[in-house]
Design goal:
With 275 residues, the protein is of the alpha/beta class. The chain has helices spanning 17-28, 41-49, 61-75, 108-133, 154-157, 163-183, 201-209, 211-219, 230-242, and strands at 8-12, 32-37, 52-55, 80-83, 94-96, 103-105, 145-150, 188-195, 250-253. The chain has a 7-stranded parallel β-sheet with strand order 3-2-1-4-7-8-9, with helices on both faces. It has a two-stranded antiparallel ribbon with strand order 5-6. A hairpin with a 6-residue loop joins strand 5 and strand 6 (103-105).
Length: 275
């Protein structure tokens, strides 16, 4: 897809991490960007890079629709959607209950919350965006837009304690081919990126909380022996936008890592005390 200053994009989770890196990469290319997030930092990021901030809760259809309406009123109909935002809970299917000494399971409600925060939200944002893209004038090759979803290497290498996260991210990959086929006659492409371990804010907190494990995480990546840098994710987002022959793909971006069944998994980050 050829992009210029008339092209509009929406990036969910754009206040930090992979979403912010995507928003910055798009703005650097001259694209008009709207950041969807619930974090207050989203407004500061938007002000810094010259984007529009929309306070959007991806769990809410009403909030999502209002965000799209606001973004389109400012920037016009988006041709690019990058969906990075998510929310989920962790835990083993059945594990020890430290409080009772017995066993407990991940509740159905916690599992459903995770599916809603990852898989359902991905469909929500992609389908709303695609409906708007359908009314655009086609570009070269009849292309109207491109949707990039964020999966995870956990979709293929789900670890102990990632039954909610891993299966929901696998569901995101499962959306890609049927959705791309649904939208092919409209000229709308759909892909997903499966990032490995990236130096996003939760992981950077981990660096101070447990330096030894931080070093181990870096060493676990075959090459280069470090966590991914968010701009590397943004770079792939831009390639998926520009290269119109990328369609219906689920792409790992992970330095060659294959996650072990347990230990060193990112769920530990979310058990850290608040800081």
């Amino acid at each position: 897809m050829k992009i210029d200053s008339n092209t509009a994009a929406i990036v969910t989770g754009g206040a930090s991490g992979l979403g912010q890196a995507s928003a910055r990469a798009l703005r650097a290319a001259g694209v008009k960007v709207a950041i969807f997030d619930i974090a207050e930092a989203g407004q500061a990021v938007a002000d810094e890079i010259g984007a529009t901030f929309c306070n959007v809760n991806i769990l809410s259809e009403e909030s999502a629709l209002a965000g799209f309406e606001k973004a389109r009123a400012v920037n016009g109909q988006e041709r690019i959607l990058v969906h990075c935002a998510m929310t989920a809970k962790g835990g083993k299917t059945v594990g020890r209950d430290k409080a009772t000494g017995g066993f407990k399971r991940v509740s159905t409600e916690d599992y459903a919350f995770s599916v809603d925060g990852i898989l359902v939200a991905s469909y929500r944002m992609a389908s709303i965006s695609a409906l708007g893209m359908a009314g655009l004038e086609p570009l070269e090759d009849g292309e109207r837009g491109v949707i990039t979803l964020t999966s995870s290497v956990a979709a293929q290498d789900g670890q102990v304690g990632q039954v909610c996260y891993g299966s929901a991210k696998a569901g995101v990959n499962g959306l890609v081919l049927p959705m791309a086929r649904d939208l092919m006659e409209l000229g709308i492409r759909v892909n997903s990126i499966m990032p490995g371990i990236f130096a996003t804010p939760p992981m950077l907190r981990f660096k101070d909380f447990n330096p030894a494990m931080w070093d181990g995480l870096n060493a676990s990546v075959p090459f280069p022996r470090r966590l991914g840098n968010p701009p590397e994710f943004g770079s792939l987002v831009m390639e998926l936008v520009r290269n119109s022959y990328f369609n219906a793909q689920t792409i790992r971006l992970d330095g060659g890592i294959r996650m072990p069944q347990q230990i060193m998994n990112a769920q530990a980050v979310f058990r850290m005390p608040p800081r």
